[in-house]
Amino acid sequence: MSDDLVLADIDAGTGVATITINRPKVLNALDVPTARAFLKAVRNVTARKDVRCIVLRGAGRAFVAGGDVAAFGSDPDRAAEVVHELLDALHPALVALREAPAPVIAAVRGVAAGAGFSLVLGADLVVAETDARFVIAYDRIGTTPDCGGTWALPRKVGRAKAMELMLLGQTLSADEARTAGIVNAVVAPDELDAHVETMARRIASGPTRAYGAYRKLVDAAFDHPFAAHLEAERASFIRMTETGDFREGVASFLEKRQPQFRGE
Q: N or C terminus of the chain with fewer C-beta within 10 Å?
């Protein structure tokens, strides 16, 4: 039963994997069984070398409405224990997604709140339907963001905007989230699936290992002095020259044809 809480589909032909959080009746709120199922799905997907793009989505009319607050309210004295159980599953899943070379796309329908918003912030690209909404939500239950929210949000929107969103508990529309730098594309509800599929297929046909290196360099740029980052770029470039995709890219450039990358 727990496996049905999170669905993982891998298209071997394109290399696109889709992970769907599947609790639509509660807007895909994350309880402990769902968090554990998510970890299992992520581990299965990221362990495969043929996966070249990962799509995260929620079933039904929402992306993820955050953690299942009912699990805290049923026994407040066990709240800390429940949080540990949730994050013991979610943390390794989030790290695995971050460390995998395959880029991650969040396809957002409806609300992305709390931990759901953090999942969106951790994605490399975000496509939202016009009616999507984004909200930190942690201020409403008197606690702090988790799942990487305070790490990713200031990187995307800057410190001042991040603090504004957290302190004022603002809800962003899809267009506002795009203006803030959180969302890459806003599309009509009936166009979301097709838009994400086209984007995912394009990314999956690219140089996957190089894409993974892009993410590492961008993440590290906030911590490296400029001179050190130049050397990190040099080291990354040298590593990429050892890949099959680099050789194919150079050959196709010289032969004036489209490259046929294999993610190797």
A: N
CA 11, CA 145: separation in Å to the nearest integer? 34
Q: What is the pTM of this model?
A: 0.95
Q: d(Cα 194, Cα 138) in Å, to the nearest integer?
A: 32
pLDDT for 217-239, tens place per residue?
Answer: 999 998 889 999 999 999 999 99
Q: What is the CATH number of the domain that holds 218?
A: 1.10.12
C-alpha separations of 71 from 6, 25, 90, 231 in Å = 18, 15, 16, 47
Helices (H), 181-243: 192-204, 208-220, 226-240
Do 217 and 155 share a structural domain? no
131: in domain:
yes
Q: For residue 239, what are the domain limits?
A: 208-254
Region 244-249: what's the mean pLDDT? 96
Task: Tell whether the model's pLDDT for residue 49 goes beyond 50.
Answer: yes
